[in-house]
C-alpha cells in the first residue's frame, strides 16, 4: 500500500526506476529531523549558558539560528546526492564494493576540501586579507624561508561567534592559504607570538603531518568498508536489531554501531599520533628560534581559552588530540637542556 507520494523534486533527482533510493529517503529525513530537534536544546544550552557563563559566546540568538538554517539548507542540497550515490554503489559494487565505496569517499573528501574554503566557509564567516604591516611581513618572510607556497593570508571574524582562537592553513600543491582568527591576533601580546603559532602550524606542513594523517584516515576508511562488505548481507545482524528487511542505510548504521568499541581503540591510537605530531611541530618552531614567543603564546592562549593545563596523563592521552600545556612546555624545556 502506498502511504505517501514521492515529491517531484526527489523523483527528478534520483529517477523513478531506483525505488531503493526513494525507499531510504523517507526514513533518512525524518530521522535526521528528529536528531536535529533533540540536539537543539543542548546546543542552545551549550552556547548561551555554558559558553556565555565563561565569557566565550559572542553570537546572538539570531546569528545562531541563521547559521543553523544555512547548515540545514546545505545538508538538504548536498546530502541526498551523497546518500543516493552510496546506495547505488552498494547495489552495484559487487566483489569490489569496498574499493568503490572508498574511492567515492576519497573523491568526495578531496572535493569538499577544495570547495569548503571557497564556497561553504564564507557563508558563515567573513574572510578579509591581513592588512599590510609588520605582522604580515613577518609571516610572509617565514613562509618564504621554508619554501611554503603562500598565496593568500586571511583574517576570519571568529570574534562574532566566540572568543576562542585558532589558526589554520589549507590548499593543495602550490596554492596554500593561511587563516588567522582575529581573536588570535587580539589575545597574543605581540606579533612574535602570532608568528610563533604560525611557525608551529608550518611545522605540521613541513613534516608532512597533514599528509600522514590523511593517508591514515584513508586506510582506516578502506578497512571499515571492507568490514562492512563482510556483514552487509547477514540476516542475523539485521534481525538482531529488529529489522526483517535489509536496507542499505540501515546496514551501514548498524555496522557503525557494532564497531564502536574498535573505533574507540583506533581513536586512542590516532590521538597518540596526533600528540606526537604536536610535540614535533613545537620542536620545529623552536629550531626556527621561536621558543620564547611560542611558550608565551601557548600560555596566553591556554589562559584565554580556559583550557586544562595539567590533566591526568591517562585521561589526556585518551581524550585529547593535543598534549596538555605542562607537557608541551616541559618538552620545549627538555630540548633546551639537551642543547645546553
Can you put this structure into words, describing what you see?
It is built from 13 helices and four strands. The radius of gyration is 23 Å and the shape is globular. Mean pLDDT is 81; it is low at 1-27. The protein has a four-stranded mixed β-sheet with strand order 1-2-4-3, with helices on both faces. Helix 4 packs across helix 8. It is mainly α. The protein starts with 7 loop residues before the first helix and ends with a helix. The longest helix is centred in the C-terminal third of the chain and has 45 residues, at 260-304.
Helix and strand content put the structural class at: mainly alpha
Radius of gyration: 23 Å
Number of DSSP strands?
4
Instruction: Estimate the global geometry from the Cα principal axes.
Output: globular
Task: Please state how the strands of the largest beta sheet are arranged side by side.
Answer: 1-2-4-3
In percent, how much strand structure appears in the residues?
Answer: 5-15%
Number of helices: 13
Order of helices and strands: HHHHEHEEEHHHHHHHH
Oligomer: single chain
Helix content: over 70%
* Mean pLDDT over the residues: 81
Distance between the termini: 81 Å
Unreliable spans: 1-27
How is the main sheet built?
A: 4 strands, mixed
GO cellular component, one term: endoplasmic reticulum membrane
Family: Belongs to the peptidase M48A family.
InterPro entries: CAXX_Prtase_1, Peptidase_M48, Peptidase_M48_N
Keywords: Endoplasmic reticulum, Hydrolase, Membrane, Metal-binding, Metalloprotease, Protease, Transmembrane, Transmembrane helix, Zinc
Amino acid at each position: 500500500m502506498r502511504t505517501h507520494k514521492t515529491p517531484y523534486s526527489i523523483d527528478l533527482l534520483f529517477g523513478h526506476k531506483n525505488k531503493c533510493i526513494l525507499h531510504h529517503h523517507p526514513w533518512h529525513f525524518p530521522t535526521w529531523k528528529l536528531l536535529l530537534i533533540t540536539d537543539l536544546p543542548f546546543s542552545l544550552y551549550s552556547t548561551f549558558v555554558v559558553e556565555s557563563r565563561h565569557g566565550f559566546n559572542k553570537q546572538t540568538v539570531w546569528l545562531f539560528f541563521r547559521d543553523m538554517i544555512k547548515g540545514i539548507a546545505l545538508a538538504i542540497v548536498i546530502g541526498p546526492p551523497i546518500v543516493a550515490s552510496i546506495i547505488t554503489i552498494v547495489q552495484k559494487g559487487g566483489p569490489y564494493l569496498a574499493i568503490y565505496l572508498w574511492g567515492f569517499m576519497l573523491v568526495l573528501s578531496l572535493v569538499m576540501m577544495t570547495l569548503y574554503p571557497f564556497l561553504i566557509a564564507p557563508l558563515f564567516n567573513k574572510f578579509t586579507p591581513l592588512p599590510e604591516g609588520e605582522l604580515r611581513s613577518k609571516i610572509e618572510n617565514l613562509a618564504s624561508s621554508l619554501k611554503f607556497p603562500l598565496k593568500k593570508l586571511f583574517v576570519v571574524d571568529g570574534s562574532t561567534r566566540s572568543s576562542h582562537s585558532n589558526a589554520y592553513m589549507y590548499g593543495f600543491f602550490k596554492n596554500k592559504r593561511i587563516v588567522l582568527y582575529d581573536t588570535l591576533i587580539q589575545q597574543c601580546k605581540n606579533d612574535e607570538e602570532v608568528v610563533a603559532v604560525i611557525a608551529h602550524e608550518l611545522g605540521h606542513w613541513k613534516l608532512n603531518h597533514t599528509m600522514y594523517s590523511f593517508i591514515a584516515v584513508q586506510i582506516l576508511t578502506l578497512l571499515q568498508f571492507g568490514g562492512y562488505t563482510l556483514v552487509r548481507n547477514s540476516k542475523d545482524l539485521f534481525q538482531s536489531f529488529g529489522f526483517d528487511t535489509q536496507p542499505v542505510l540501515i546496514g551501514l548504521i548498524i555496522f557503525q554501531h557494532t564497531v564502536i568499541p574498535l573505533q574507540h581503540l583506533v581513536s586512542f591510537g590516532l590521538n597518540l599520533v596526533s600528540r606526537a605530531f604536536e610535540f614535533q611541530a613545537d620542536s620545529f618552531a623552536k629550531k626556527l628560534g621561536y621558543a620564547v614567543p611560542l611558550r608565551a603564546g601557548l600560555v596566553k592562549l591556554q589562559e584565554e581559552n580556559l583550557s586544562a593545563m595539567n590533566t591526568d596523563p591517562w585521561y589526556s592521552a585518551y581524550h585529547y588530540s593535543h598534549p596538555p600545556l605542562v607537557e608541551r612546555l616541559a618538552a620545549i624545556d627538555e630540548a633546551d637542556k639537551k642543547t645546553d
